[in-house]
Amino acid sequence: MNYTQTLEFLFSSLPAFESQGATAYKPGLERITAFCRHLGNPQRNFFTIHIAGTNGKGSVAHIIASVLQQAGYRTGLFTSPHLQDFRERIRVDGEMIPKQKVVNFVDKHHDKMVELQLSFFEMTAAMAFDYFAQSDVEVAVIETGLGGRLDATNLIVPILSIITNIGLEHTALLGDTLQKIAAEKAGIIKKSIPVLIGEADPRYNGVIEQAAAANKSKVLYAEQIFRCEKQAASGDRQLFTLRRMRDDRPFDVELDLEGNYQCHNIITASAAVDFLHEETPLTISRRAFIEGLRCTAANTALRGRWQKLGEAPLTVCDTGHNAHGIAYVAEQLRQTPHRKLYCVMGFVRDKDLAHILPLLPREAHYLFTQAHTERALTAEELTAKAAIYGLQGEAVADVQAAVARARELAAPEDMIFIGGSTYVVGEAL
User: Fold this and answer.
1) 356/363 Cα distance (integer angstroms)
2) 0.70 cut: is pTM over it?
3) Domain 3-300 in CATH 3.40.1190.10
């Protein structure tokens, strides 16, 4: 098989949550455990940091990976979904897995994957572990796909577990309350392995603390380790003054990611880096920490986080796609100076729009669209649902055409926002 045929096999033969949604979700660790045993358990060959959470886990993963790279470690990074290229999911020192490695892996293990009836995500996670082991990775940052307890990545034994925050998402699969979702995410906690909570909340802290106590694992709260005293925009980057609580030490840092919500992620990532340096075999200098933050996007090729695509009109995209993430986006839209706002928005069919649509600005003109995925809600259906919440606009069935229409309507002093779904952002990019 060539690379195109290999991808066709992965996306069509194996159930993919990205294209099929909940029907492709195969909870449980039996299949991935059996497959990794077949591979020689490559996930045991390097240190891992395991990250779950409703929002921010991608940004936190990329920030930590950038700092580890800067500290001189050969660093693996496994994230999902991808925006444009499947290989974005699997990186070593910021470089995507080569196409030939993807082809070779599938050629070699094709029969076993079919025999075990692996899901797309299980296969991808195993491919990442195998590639990291082959590439002499020393430490890998692993992001969960969905939930935690039954997620395919949960067969790793990390040196630190991180839960960024808990919001309502995938309620049909994870539970319909914050407490139920927290219990699923807390499933990544391993015996005697500390867990770091990024954003504390009395509604779910107890659930995570209970799971940690059952595992004799220490609970760390990021906001008790660092606090953010100042946040300011400076061109296409942000300046922060962070203070480490234990010794009252200030850190003036830059982050090459925009978005006000990054203040939460930088605190979580900084607390994680501090723990890794103080409590594990890893050594991370102050210089590596500061440089790693300053070059996060440059080192790891992270995109789609309040990413500026153009000026006059200011054009921004963001992958926030659940109520928790959209609330941050809506707040930042309110704070960004503009005359008229045009929003290119599309969602997947299984999103809880009753919690999302009321958060969006009513004064904007919407270009309701749909990405090229089976899971997409049609532009017409979205237009009708949005009207119930007072959101007005027009349906444009293709993302590129919707962006072009927004550009046609917008004056230089206006603003265009593109989001709602990772797929919409990917196609806009």
Assistant:
1) 16
2) yes
3) yes
